[in-house]
Amino acid sequence: FQIGAAKLVVVVAIFLLTFYVISQVFEIKMDANLGHIFARSALDAAARSTKPPRYKCGISKACPEKHFAFKMASGAANVVGPKICVEDNVLMSGVKNNVGRGINVALVNGKTGEPLDSKFFDMWGGDVAPFIEFLKSIQDGTIVLMATYDDGATKLNEEARKLIAELGSSSITNLGFRDNWVFCGGKGVKTKSPFEQHIKNNKDTNKYEGWPEVVEMEGCIPQKQD
Question: Cβ-count burial of 223 within 10 angstroms (0-12 exposed, 13-18 middle, 19+ buried)?
Answer without folding.
Answer: middle
